[in-house]
Amino acid sequence: MTVLVTGGAGYIGSHVARLLAQRGEAVVIADDLSTGIPSRLEGAEHATLDLAAVDAVQSIRAIIRAHDVTSVIHLAARKKVGESVELPEWYYSQNIGGMANLLEAMKAEGVTRLVFSSSAATYGMPDVDFVAEDFNCKPINPYGETKLIGEWLGRAASKAWGLRAVNLRYFNVAGAGWDDLADTAVANLIPIAFAALKAGETPKVFGDDYATADGSCVRDYVHVLDLADAHLAALKYLERDDRTFDTFNVGTGTGSSVFEVLAEIKNATGIDFEPEVLPRRAGDPPYLCADVSRIKNELGWSASQDLASIVSSAWKAVASAK
Ligand code: WQD
Predict the structure, then answer these.
(1) Does residue 87 sit in the same domain as residue 202?
(2) What is the rounded average pLDDT of the residues 302-317?
(3) Which member of 143, 170, 210, 237 is catalytic?
(4) Is 210 annotated in the active site?
């Protein structure tokens, strides 16, 4: 009864793997370590593996057999929005090709439980502030497209051979559950602002002229440990015989603006600064927050950590980095 966590050397994947182990689950990690960090594996069972490699199906099947894998949490993917616009073919071959190989291996070995790491990026630029799972998804970049297609692939497999799949659409993930699992990819607002402050620079705001309360964009920031816990709830949900395929937003259901996040960063770091306002960034919806009623009703899950806890835990991890 082992859970295979693909991408388990990543920021989110390592939190999922460590929380599973802490809860007494047997875990094996598959990661190609192209962006994952070996130290995050912390003595966990693991295999270095590129899911999109030509021989990946046989390699994954060998891992499934060697570790008696009975369920999979699939996080391994390329996830940089800008990079996906520049390299769409690579994003499709990596994200969709990798998932197709994983499902081939699972089908061949009779593994029928999958939790899929999807994204709020599947929604694109919705015309509602709090978006629900039945929204007509229109992703606006290849990254978001690969996440939506990944969901479709899981649905097709559930119809074709009885896969049970849950898609978790992550909103804005931040924070740290353990100090050694900081988000070291400086690719999102909070780590970008920390990096600026550590370099003696001023955090930037991409636009303050949006139709929001303070003019800056609003997002749904969810603690990475809350997110990891949602994966465990999803695994439990898959044991219900009346459930074969479902999709859930993972967020807090509350919005925070860029200025509000930066104010929390001032509190957590003790560093005072006046944000530098720059023009809007292309592709930014003014407001993108999760309607979290379904995950609460169906999985009994809701986030427990607020923005202050997210920012303070993230800063503590960054500040403790060697
Ligand atoms: C947040 C807000 C920026 C940096 C994410 C990612 C991905 C996905 C969820 C999983 C935006 C503003 C940013 C800065 C700023 N999750 N900003 N100054 O764009 O919501 O996208 O969605 O797949 O993590 O796609 O996240 O952190 O880039 O930006 O003002 O230096 O902060 O304009 O409004 P985003 P982000």
Answers:
(1) no
(2) 98
(3) 143
(4) no
CB 5 within 8 A of CB 73: yes
pLDDT band with cut points at 50, 70 and 90 for residue 184? very high
Percent of the chain with pLDDT over 90: 97
Question: Into how many domains does the chain fold?
Answer: 2
Ligand 1 residue neighbourhood (C-beta within 6 Å): 79, 81, 119-121, 170, 172, 188-189, 192, 204-206, 217, 219, 258, 281, 284
**Two structure tokens written together for 178:** 């353990």
* Count of Cβ atoms closer than 10 Å to residue 210 Cβ: 19
SS3 label, residue 205: strand
> 143 and 214, same structural domain?
no
pLDDT at position 243? 85
Query: Are residues 211 and 106 part of one domain?
Result: no
Check residue 322 and give its pLDDT: 64
Say yes or no: 110 and 53 in one domain.
yes
The residue segments making up the domain with residue 42 are 2-173+221-250
**206 in the same domain as 80:** no
* Identity at 14, one-letter amino acid code: S
The chain-wide mean pLDDT, for the chain, equals 97
The protein residue with its alpha carbon nearest to ligand 1, atom 14, reads 189
Q: Are residues 243 and 287 in the same domain?
A: no
**pLDDT (tens digit per residue) in 92-141:** 999 999 999 999 999 999 999 999 999 999 999 999 999 999 999 999 99
Q: Are residues 82 and 127 in the same domain?
A: yes
What's the gap in Å between 113 CA and the centre of ligand 1?
A: 31
Residue closest via CA to ligand 1's atom 27 equals 188
Q: Specify the DSSP element, H or E, that contains 297.
A: helix 293-299
Q: Tell me: do 21 and 140 sit in the same domain.
A: yes
pTM for this structure?
0.97
Contact assessment for residue 158 and residue 164, using Cβ atoms and an 8 Å cutoff = yes
H or E element at residue 169: strand 164-170
